[in-house]
Design goal:
Elements lengths: L5 E5 L9 E2 L4 E7 L11 E8 L4 E8 L6 E9 L9 E3 L5 E7 L10 E8 L6 E5 L10 E3 L4 E6 L11 E8 L4 E8 L6 E10 L8 E4 L4 E10 L5 E12 L4 E5 L8 E5 L4
Parallel strand pairs: 2-9, 6-7, 11-18, 15-16
Antiparallel strand pairs: 1-3, 3-6, 4-5, 4-8, 5-6, 8-9, 10-12, 12-15, 13-14, 13-17, 14-15, 17-18, 19-20
Length: about 270
């Protein structure tokens, strides 16, 4: 008796079909075709994989056991320069992936080709910045020593559930101190994450929940963007500001709009 075969893009358990994949993940493929189980040995099936950005790869699926009629295989996906035939599927954030194999024993009237498709998830490029205060704050480029640093990450990719999520950032200063802090989503679906850390004038002391500053240090916050708008994975985003001592004079534009009139203000004089 002949059977119509089926090919599916599935998760790593090979039990659940998937409709979307992220660059950098493994693409798992499953064929169910009892006609291809010829004897007690593990048979093999050739599968063609193509993308709308024109990568083409061929992989071999192996029967899970003799006479099972179920064949599985996988291929790693990645972003970057397209290289056909390198045993990696090069994809971008707007691709559609198609997997195909030839069903040689066709019951229904068709070409005999069996296929399945899935989309590539297009990410949102995350942004990290120092801000003047939580919730309503705007971007700043300097802070006063002995006061809080406020940080915001905007990255809707990390809004995974309806609950409040968290992300981590690393704070570094040029004199050597470094701290990792957790930012919390401002609401269950905002995709905006905020947090703060205290600063103090003094020598570096790691992992104490405070940033030690020496004089006019520069401070940098770094965030790893899991997937950006181009589908690239694990991209570093950062922002840098200058630390000023309390009462120090800093030259800023006076807001007159002339572009060349400057005035001195006392940092931290509030």
């Amino acid at each position: 008796m002949n059977y119509d075969g089926e090919i599916e893009i599935v998760d790593s358990s090979y039990n659940n079909e998937v409709v979307e994949i992220t660059a950098g993940e493994t693409l798992y493929i499953k064929i169910t075709d009892y006609d291809l189980s010829i004897d007690n040995s593990k048979e093999k099936v050739i599968v063609s994989i193509t993308t709308t950005s024109n990568d083409t790869e061929t992989i071999i699926l192996t029967e899970t056991s003799g006479n099972s009629g179920i064949f599985t295989g996988e291929i790693l996906t990645r972003t970057g320069t397209l290289v056909a035939g390198n045993n990696k599927l090069d994809i971008s954030g707007t691709d559609v992936i198609e997997v195909r194999y030839k069903d040689t024993e066709v019951v229904e009237l068709s070409t005999g080709w069996r296929s399945d498709t899935c989309d590539v998830r297009e990410g949102v490029t995350g942004v990290v910045e120092f801000i003047s205060e939580l919730i309503t704050g705007t971007g700043v480029d300097s802070y006063v020593i002995n006061r809080e640093l406020y940080i915001r990450v905007t990255d809707n990719d990390m809004n995974i559930t309806s609950g409040v999520e968290t992300v981590k950032v690393t704070i570094e200063v040029t004199s050597g101190d470094s701290e990792v802090i957790t930012l919390t989503e401002t609401s269950g679906s905002s995709g905006i994450f905020e947090g703060s850390i205290g600063t103090i004038l003094g020598d570096k002391e790691y992992s104490n929940g405070t940033i030690e500053i020496l004089g006019s240090d520069y401070v940098t916050v770094r965030y790893i963007d899991d997937i950006d708008g181009n589908g690239y994975r694990n991209q570093e985003r950062y922002d840098t500001g200058e630390m000023e001592e309390e009462g120090e004079i800093k030259i800023v534009e006076d807001g007159s709009g002339s572009g060349n009139e400057l005035t001195g203000i006392i940092i931290g004089d509030t």
